[in-house]
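Q: My labmate handed me this sequence with no annotations at all. I'd like to see what the chain might look like in three dimensions before we decide whether it's worth expressing. Could you predict it?
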Amino acid sequence: MSLLRLILNIAWLICGGFIMAFAWALIGIVACISIIGIPFARSCFVIAQLTLWPFGKDIDRRDRITRQRDIGTGSLGTLGNIIWFFLFGIWLAIGHLFHAVACFVTIIGIPFGIQHIKLAMLSIAPIGQQVVELD
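A: Here is what I predict for the chain of 135 residues:
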């Protein structure tokens, strides 16, 4: 990992990364309460890790990476994303957008705002997405 990524990731925690990672983990715990929500919860915990340390990672569609469709990239994944959006996604997206606007106020915060926008888009429809390392 480059020194710049390390510095950006540490500064990211101060610029809303820790708060939003906590929100993702909290939503994951809430989703674990029901058996139906366990697949959502697993995704929440993976995305909470991404939210803690986002620089050097990106999100891509799983069917593009594996070159095959699965249950999460088909019609059931779309249905899951719709359910996710109305239960949890809208609230996480609003949180990321709030932090993005706060980061865009300063020139130094622009990279952090871009990461919040990326995570807001992910929070709208996370099913069928995968975290990939940029190297």
